[in-house]
Structure formats: structure tokens, C-alpha cells
Amino acid sequence: MPDLAWTSAADLAALIRARHVSPVEVMRATLDRAERSQPLLNAFITLCPEQAMAAARQAETAVMRGEALGPLHGVPFSVKDLVPTAGVRTTLGSLIFKDHVPEQDAALVARLKAAGAILFGKTTTPEFGQKPLTEAPLFGRTRNPWDASRTPGGSSGGAAVAVATGIGPLAVATDGGGSTRIPAACNGVVGFKQGLGVVPQEWAQDGFGNISYVTPMTRTVMDTALMLDAIAGPHPADPLTAGRPQPRFAEAARAEGDLRGTRIAWRPRLGNARVAAEVLRLCGEALRDLAGTGAAVEEQAGAFENPEAVWFVVNGSYRLAQFGHHLERHRAIMDPVFVRQMDRVRSHSAQELYRAIFQRTALYRQVQSWFEAADIVAMPTLSRTALPLDQDFFGPIEIDGEAVPNLRAAWYPYTMPFNLTGNPAVSLPCGVASDGLPVAIQLVARPGEDARLLRVAALFEQVRSWARRRPAVTGLD
């Protein structure tokens, strides 16, 4: 009998099809682990055991009857609580929406269900997903399973903690400035932000200028590819998806062959002055492993301006238009960090917003120029390991004993640019630092080359396996 908590989605689906395990026992084990983890990690806002078990029993019946089964038949998945789920409350991490229950699934949730996957819970997010630390007045703090005194990152902290601790192999996350890749790096899992328009967001209020992505969060590259195969593809309500061909992501992630002929450019800094020495060392070891598969690795020089100021104006203006009206009635029950950020962005004019949009276009052109001499660009995902659980969002962070101001600009300058440019980017675990916490490397590809990026990630996973690494959570294992 396999250890169901640590079995990949690909293997679970195969075991279920072969009738070696039942969707009912898989779901029962997943829900039990989720419930036992809550006092320890606080990764879920809502669990839906009755709905999940009913779906698992239906999935079991389909197997026993010999019906046609989807590629993820019977596999549990969770959804970050920013994404609509029919009949299951969706709070946006906010007390304002603590009782909100959508009538309709987001398209990608419906697509996962159509592939046979079963929803069992909604994972934690800071209010409206607007913080890289997963905490909010609605639920408190989510803790890092590798060290409970550290943050899991954010804003998809609950999703990353769930998959890192074996509570379902698949999680739906979101990424507006690094919100998939930051917690993936902090928790030692795969965080893939696909290219712009690959996965639909038919409920997004701005269908044209969006910088946020709904993404997979998994422990393995193949599981990420299987999720993408299920959720990618055009949707008539999302203009950015129009005419997008859908490659076979799982086929690309089979880790066949080598990387001979692949040029990898290493950029250790993206407008940040400080990065931890251990992060550079472990990323350097990862690059040597990539070179060992045949890739040509060279450092790429060139000036780059920290993207935080542009990102803040573009994202902040969007969020103020989206959620700013709640400040008038609900300020007292909202996250003070979110309130303070919205108060800051109020002073920006329409002219300043469009100046930032022009800068976004210039940034896109600059980043694409990197690929004239490279096929993949590599960099750290974060400048240091997970921050303290009680990190002051507006205070400095510490890197190698030095206080560095501006958390966003100092900790994750590597992730924000690719929300703005639309390039696919993946965070992959590449080692463990001396503080016992995971470190990750980020790989970035040209727009439209998501499948190629998955292949490189899969080959890296093959030579530098991390899926066997598991956090030891007292009281859970």
C-alpha cells in the first residue's frame, strides 16, 4: 500500500485506474491529514468533507463500472480562497466576504473537475492576495512546515504548505507579483507561473491589462504539467486566451533526452543590491547540474532597474479600483497592511498610472532582448530563505546580517518582472540552507515556450531530485 500522502497525482491517478487504491480511501486520508494539520499549520480557510466524500464515492463507482475516466480521476485538489468555487465559500481572505458562497466554479476549477479531480478545501491567502506573508484578520497566520517560526511566504502560502506537507498533490494558486513562486521557494515545492493567456481568468475585471495568473502548485514537474493540460486553453470571456494553441504539457515534462544545445543565462541580481551568499552558492550548484545535462551556462550582464516601483503603481491602481470602495465601510475590519498600501496608492494620478504602463512595455522589450543570446534565463527565486513569521511588512528584511529596506524590492525582485512581461517562469527547489529552510532557483522562458520550460524543469528535477525531501511536522507525521 503506497503512502497516499506522498504519492504524486500522476501515480495516484494510475493507481486508481488500476483499482489498486480507491478514490474514497485517498480522499479520506487527505481530509484526515488536512484536519490534523490545521492546529499546527493553519493552511485552510474552509474544508468541504461532505462534498468531497460524495464526489469520491461517485468516482469510485465510475471506476468499478468501467466507465471512461479522466486523466486526474479521483485525485484530490485544493483551491486558493481567491478563486470562485461553486457551493464552497470563497472569502478572498477577508472578513468582508467571510460568508460568500459562489454559485459557479471558475472555468479552471470546472476543468479540473471535468478531468476527474476532486475539490476538498480552500487554502489560506492574505486579504485579496495582497501580501507575500500569508496572514489576515479572517484566519490568523499560516506557518511554514519546515520551521513554524517562519512565514510560508505568500500570497499562496496555504497552497504551498498543503502540497509540501502531503495534503493533496495538487493545489490551485495565484500569482500577481510572485505569489505562487515565493511560497513555492519557501516551502520546497514547484511553483509554475505560466505565460500570459495560457490559463483563462474569465472572472477577472480587467481582461486586457491583467498581471495576475491562476497557476498550479505541486511537488513534481509532471503534476504541474498534468494540471496545465487540464486547465489551459482558450475561453471566450478572456481575451488574452484567444487563439492560444495548447501544447501537450505532460508530454513535454517526460524528462527525455538532455539539454545539449540549450543556452542558459545566469542573472544573479535583478536591480537588488543584496542576495544571501548561501542562495548564490546553492543556485550555482544547480547551474552546474544543468550544465551536466548538456546546457551551456553563462552569466549575463547588463543593467536592470528594480521593478518594484512600476509593479506597485500598476498593481496598486488595479487593486484600488477593484477593492478601494470597501475602505469606506469596512476599514476597521480590514488588514492594516492592505489599508496602508491602498492609502499610499491613492495619491497616484492617471498620468502616473499610464507612465507605469509605458514602463511595463519597455520592461517587456528589455526582457525579451535577453533571449537573443539565451533560451532560458536563470536567477534565484528569492534573495534569502523564508522570513520570520512576525516580519513587519513595512520594515527592513535581514540578508546575511544586514538590514535591507523595502521587503518587496529586497526579497523578491526576481518574480515581479515576469508578471508584468508575461514570460513563463518556474521556481524549483535547489537545496537547503544552513537554517534548514529550502532555497529555490527560478527559470524563465520566452512567451509561448511554457512547454519548453517544463522540459528543462523536468530534466533538472531528474538530476537534482527534491520530491523525497519532506518537512518534519511534529504532530502530523
What does this molecule look like?
By secondary structure, the chain is an alpha/beta fold. The chain has one domain (4-463): Alpha-Beta Complex (Amidase signature (AS) enzymes), CATH 3.90.1300.10. Helices cover 37% and strands 14% of the residues. The chain contains 16 helices and 15 strands. It has helices spanning 9-17, 23-41, 49-64, 107-114, 157-164, 181-187, 221-231, 249-252, 277-292, 308-323, 326-330, 336-345, 350-370, 407-411, 416-421, 450-463; strands spanning 44-47, 76-80, 118-123, 135-136, 140-141, 170-175, 190-193, 213-218, 263-266, 296-299, 376-380, 397-399, 402-404, 425-432, 438-444. It has an eleven-stranded mixed β-sheet, with helices on both faces. It starts with 8 loop residues before the first helix and ends in a 14-residue tail after the last helix. The mean pLDDT is 97.
